[in-house]
Amino acid sequence: MFKRLRELREDKDLNQSKVAQYLNMSQTGYSKYETGENDIPTKVLIDLAKFYNTSVDYILELTDEMKPYREN
Asked: Which pTM value belongs to this model?
C-alpha cells in the first residue's frame, strides 16, 4: 500500500507537501503514511482516492484496476 501511495503521488509530479496541504496536515504526518510508520485513517484513504481519481481498493493494493467506482 505504501509503495502505491508514493507511485500515485509521483505520477502526478507532486511532492509530499502538496498532498499534505490537500489533506490539511503536515508533510511529516503524510510522510509517515507513505513509509508505513502510521496507519492511514479511513477518511484520509477516501480523500486520497478522490484526489487521485481512483478507488480505496487500488490504494490498498486489493486490485490493480485504477479506475474509480461510480458515485452513488
From this structure: 0.90
